[in-house]
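Office hours follow-up: a student asked to see two folded examples consecutively, so here they are.
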Amino acid sequence: MIIVTGGAGFIGSCLVAALHARGHEVIVVDRLRNGDKWRNLRRHAPARLVAPEDLDALFDSDIAVEAVFHLGAISATTARDGDLVWNTNVALSEKLWVWCTERQVRFFYASSAATYGAADRPELFSDDPARLETLEPLNLYGWSKQVFDLHVKARLVRGEDRPPQWCGLKFFNVYGPNEYHKGSMISVVKVKYDEVSAGRPARLFRSDCPAIADGQQKRDFIWVGDVVDVMLWLFDHPHVSGLFNCGTGVARSYLDLAHAVCDAVGVARVVEFIDMPESLRGQYQSFTQADMTRLRAVGYDAPFTSLEGGVTQYVRDHLSKADPYI
């Protein structure tokens, strides 16, 4: 049995689909609520669906669990409720770490590229644990992820017991199917698809940094299928533990992304620039690029999907279909 927190969400449901295809029984810890989020699990229903508030009862049972993938979080970079974010992103993560240690269950958890804050050069995106204390996240979400990464490091430095395998993954800008419930946090790829497929220009934020031209803000965009492949590879290699970046290692501009969406839809490349919302100014990462050296060093050698390849696959196999779900 494998537990996936956040298993009805974007990355979580894609992982659940892959585990289901492998024949694993999965317990999803999540809430479906009143929307279409249930559709993320329609083709690969879990063995059990457990509400987060019922997690303690699950822990108190004698269920045999092989691994926990902890992907549930308050993931909005605009989140403001510090107590809620702490309890969800830090305290719950601590509880899962302790339980996995006591039960000797393998533990995989989601960190974030948001921990890198205003880093603006490739060399500043190293996932070397020795650099953890130097990172300065720009928002509450990124800070909460940084806190748990630091707590894990402190436990290891103190020589405390740990799960038999543990891996933290700093997800960069993930896009792909099953993200449709995410509201304002949905990927830029999906937003640009909606615009251009409706006959409108692809709209991009003007740069709020004088040194960066409009549309030349760059991010490391990673196809969700590649993210799932990384998690499954780590699951298949139980001797590997550590905190790792999970991106492609290549920064691409938002203009590149908008052009890729236009090309995939088959329309002219028409882009319009608009002012960045006040709520994002000072919290917006204008550059991200994962340093993938450490993950490659432990043996992960699969290629990553190019931006154009991932966008084309997303549009062709999902967004252009009546049923866009995995």
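And the second, which I mentioned at the end of office hours:
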Amino acid sequence: MKKIGFLSFGHWNPEAGSPLRTAGDTLLQSIDLAVAAEELGVDGAYYRVHHFARQLASPFPLLAAVGAKTSKIEIGTGVIDMRYENPLYMIEDAGAADLISGGRLQLGISRGSPEQVNDGWRYFGYQPVEGEDPSDMARRHAEIFLKHLDGEGFAQPNPQPMFPNPPGLLRLEPHSEGLRRRIWWGSGSNGTAIWVAQMGMNLQSSTLKVDESGEPFHIQQGKQIRAYREAWKEAGHDFEPRVSVSRSIFALTNDMDRAYFGRSKSDDQIGYIDNFRGIFGRGYADEPDRLVEQLKGDEAIAEADTLLLTVPNMLGVEYNTHVLENIMTHVAPAMGWR
């Protein structure tokens, strides 16, 4: 068994002819796709977060809305860029979204990826302290977030409050019990994955990582996952972690599928991002029987307990529902995921 979710980047385009021309179109269709996915038996609805772009940005209103409109599907992010976040305010937002959903929030956070604006976090009022770089700042924000997420009181109460206080130091409200164990970190290297394990977070590994060995992407990612699990064991945490990988996977079952994805590239790609050599994992698109055989050879998918399917949200809810239904019907049973 493997949990299967979708991951949407939430694009829109105001040009004539675009099926999603406004942010409102994308937000509403994001909710509708989660509802449709839940009906198909998909396990998770995850959303990417990008600032200064025509994409999904502010995740918590969307997550709360999805949580209110569904009853079973996990809701999550992949990932929130912690360079931009006030960690204490984020605790309140995350707690509210989790309570609305009945404890279904799976919150992915990370250092983030290159954005549309140089040092965009500066416009949000944040900057690294002396001796830090932006990645350090993201980790510092994350550590503050994790420290106070368990609900321990830390703030000195006003001796003459407007409303009565409980005894002792005050915590942030609303508090959602158990959310601390449902925080994930998006990792792009083996070293970061080890740090994630030490911090007691679940691991999100996407289709991009630092090229650390020159081996095929799925082999490097499999090694990353095993390094994470070994570090988790050494850290001695008292719960079992989860690991997700994301992939573009399309089962070609009709002429529209073949027109959209029949010529998709099927090889890993090498590129440079943020001054490091990165390896970008291949996508999969083929007839269902051949697709299953290809997926059986993906070492990292086999290692992970959760698979996030990146969806082409600009093609609309109906077509993306068809994409997910193809996976749930033709691929998941043949792979032993259902």
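Two things to take away from it. The mean pLDDT is 96. The longest strand covers residues 3-8.
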